[in-house]
Every structure is written in structure tokens, then in C-alpha cells.
Specification:
Blueprint lengths: L1 H25 L33 H9 L5 H12 L7 E10 L10 E7 L6 E7 L5 E9 L1 E7 L3 E3 L6 E3 L16 E7 L7 E2 L8 E4 L7 E4 L4 E2 L5 E6 L11 E7 L4 E4 L16 E7 L8 E10 L4 E10 L4 E9 L11
Parallel strand pairs: 1-8
Antiparallel strand pairs: 1-4, 2-3, 2-5, 5-7, 6-8, 9-19, 10-19, 11-12, 11-13, 13-14, 14-16, 15-17, 17-18, 18-19
């Protein structure tokens, strides 16, 4: 009896020990420190408390992305290196700038005021100066330090061109470094103000535009631009076919149309739209959008010269609408005296 009990105990211990040994052999093991060594098998110093982290392989997605990234240019690499060495590197770069102001005929503009502003290491974080153009329209700024320079030009009796450059980078090549050259100054344009006139506009109170509600089934409404209201005496018809607002995100098409029966539209993208053309007007402009087509869009924004009535009156019109809009917004000005002059009186 005792022998059987002893034999059963030995078999039980052997089974338990064997199972534990098998599990241990199958389990992944962390790299261990060699006796007397201060570094792990990966060559890293041990973590405080003796805990070690397993080195992780980079995800496959990251590895594939890194292979497709464009190589970093040497100039950007040098910039990164210098920025790491000096955290104030950006704001210590020498700033020099050379410019020239011209009018719409490319003639130099003297006496124009130039405002400079740049970010730097001053207590305020930015510094500013002003200059005046000479008889050749030239101006400059030298001997300053900073990261980015902002330049604006102005003169009484002139419009500043929306196309004028504004900012110039001196530190980070990834943002497009500016290289000053006194032999090739940066050109800024001003346009001399003409004889402006009093215009009828869409402005009403605090609003600059005139919002128009449109039926969504294509029914046209007539708009009186001179009186800023819907009226059968209006000069322009507007219609739209659109889905109900609740379902516009699932819609696949929409339509918008404008018509001037006794005049028309000329699309314009002029920097200074101050003179309407005499001819070339189309009585109807319409847009049909199908999802999946090249012209598909959810919003429409257009600028036109417009002509209507007998005798003819001229103006300019900006229209903004979209598939989700309950109508359209019109921003316009009309010369009531029949002249093609659309420059506002100052």
C-alpha cells in the first residue's frame, strides 16, 4: 500500500514538473543582462529598477511610408541641424530687402509709404519701420535680423494691388527662402484713383450682399437690382433646381441659371473691375452639375460684368450659391447714369 502511494506521488510530481518545463520552453523570453554587465543584449543601459523593454520592430505601414517620402534637401537638413544647436536660430537671420513701387502703367511711384514688420528677439517679439520711395520708386531695408519680413505699400490717391507680395522668409528653406538682390528689386504696384462715381449697390445696413430665396423646383424669380427687391419689374431672372436641404448630401445633381433678357453677362476676373466692357454680353448663364463629372462642385462663386435696360446700364455682380443653399447671395454695384465707369466715389 505504501509503495503504491509513493509511486503515485512520483508520477504526479513528474507530470507537473514536465508540464511546467514544456510551458517555460514555449514562452518568449526577454533578453537578460549578462553577469557583471551594465548593458542589455540590445546594447541599451538598463532601466531603473532592473525592468527592460523589448525592442519593437517598426510597423510595416511606417516602413512603407518612409520609403516613399521625398528626400530632404541639403539646405533643409542644414537648417534643422542649426535649429537644434540654437533654438533662437530662426530669429537671428540677417534681413535685407530691396523694392520698387510702380503704377498701372509701370511708371515709378515716388513718395509712396512703405511699412516693414518682422518677427525677432525683441521684447515685443516684432519690430517695425517705415520708409518712403525715392524718385525712382525705390526703397530698401538693411541691417536687421529676424525670421520673416512683412511689407506693405500705400500712397494717398492710389489703390494697393491685391497681387502685391506680402511676406518674405529668411530662415526656413522649407518655406521658400527669400534672396534679396539690389539689382533686381521686388516690384509692388499701386493704381491711381480715377474719377469715381456714385453707384447703386447691394449694400443694406450691415450687409454687403443681397440674399435671395429661390424655389428648389426651377421656378424663376425676378430681381430688381436698382430697388434691391423681388419684383416683376426686375432686370434679372434667377432659377435653381436643388434637392431639399435634408437630403442634399445624398444628391447627385443640381442646376443654377441667371438671365438678363435685354442685356447679359461677361465673366470678369479683373484686379480692378472699374470699367465694364461695351459688348460681348451673353443673355443667359447656366450651370448643370452631375456628381462624378469633371465640373462637379457643391458651391458656385462667379464674378460678372452685367448690362441691362434701354438705355443700357452697366454694373458688376458677384453671385454665390451651392447645392445646400436655399437660394443665392448677390453682391453688386450699378452705375445709374448709363456710364461704363464702375469705380466707386471716395
Amino acid at each position: 500500500m505504501k509503495r503504491r502511494t509513493l509511486l503515485a506521488a512520483i508520477v504526479f510530481i513528474t507530470l507537473v514538473f514536465g508540464s511546467a518545463l514544456l510551458l517555460w520552453m514555449r514562452a518568449p523570453h526577454e533578453p537578460r543582462l549578462n553577469a557583471g554587465s551594465k548593458e542589455s543584449a540590445s546594447g541599451e543601459a538598463p532601466k531603473p529598477g532592473g525592468a527592460q523593454e523589448r525592442p519593437q520592430s517598426p510597423p510595416l505601414q511606417q516602413a512603407s511610408v518612409s520609403k516613399t517620402q521625398a528626400p530632404v534637401s541639403p539646405s533643409v537638413q542644414e537648417y534643422v541641424r542649426k535649429s537644434k544647436q540654437d533654438s533662437f536660430y530662426d530669429w537671428k537671420q540677417p534681413i535685407s530687402f530691396y523694392g520698387q513701387v510702380k503704377d498701372e502703367t509701370e511708371a515709378p511711384v515716388s513718395g509712396a509709404v512703405v511699412h516693414f514688420k518682422w518677427n525677432d528677439l525683441s521684447a515685443k517679439g516684432t519690430s517695425a519701420e517705415s520708409a518712403t520711395t525715392d524718385s525712382g520708386g525705390l526703397f530698401s531695408l538693411t541691417g536687421r535680423k529676424g525670421k520673416r519680413l512683412y511689407v506693405e505699400v500705400a500712397k494717398a490717391g492710389y489703390y494697393s494691388s491685391p497681387g502685391n507680395p506680402l511676406a518674405f522668409e529668411y530662415a526656413n528653406p522649407a518655406d521658400g527662402l527669400f534672396t534679396p538682390n539690389p539689382a533686381s528689386p521686388v516690384v509692388f504696384h499701386l493704381r491711381k484713383r480715377g474719377r469715381g462715381t456714385v453707384l447703386v449697390t447691394s449694400e443694406y445696413g450691415a450687409r454687403q450682399d443681397f440674399p435671395v430665396h429661390l424655389p428648389r423646383d426651377g421656378t424663376a424669380v425676378k430681381i430688381d437690382l436698382m430697388e434691391r427687391k423681388l419684383s416683376e419689374k426686375g432686370q434679372i431672372l434667377v432659377a435653381a433646381v436643388k434637392p431639399e436641404y435634408e437630403s442634399w448630401k445624398m444628391a447627385t445633381n443640381w442646376f443654377f441659371k441667371m438671365e438678363v433678357p435685354d442685356g447679359g453677362f461677361v465673366e470678369q476676373n479683373d484686379e480692378f473691375p472699374f470699367e465694364a466692357p461695351e459688348g460681348g454680353y451673353q443673355p443667359v448663364v447656366e450651370f448643370s452639375f452631375e456628381k462624378g463629372s469633371a465640373n462637379w462642385t457643391e458651391e458656385l462663386s462667379k464674378n460678372y460684368y452685367i448690362k441691362f435696360g434701354v438705355p443700357a446700364r452697366y454694373g458688376r455682380l458677384h453671385v454665390q450659391t451651392g447645392i445646400s443653399y436655399g437660394g443665392a447671395t448677390l453682391t453688386y454695384c450699378i452705375n445709374p447714369d448709363g456710364s461704363r465707369n464702375l469705380e466707386p466715389k471716395q
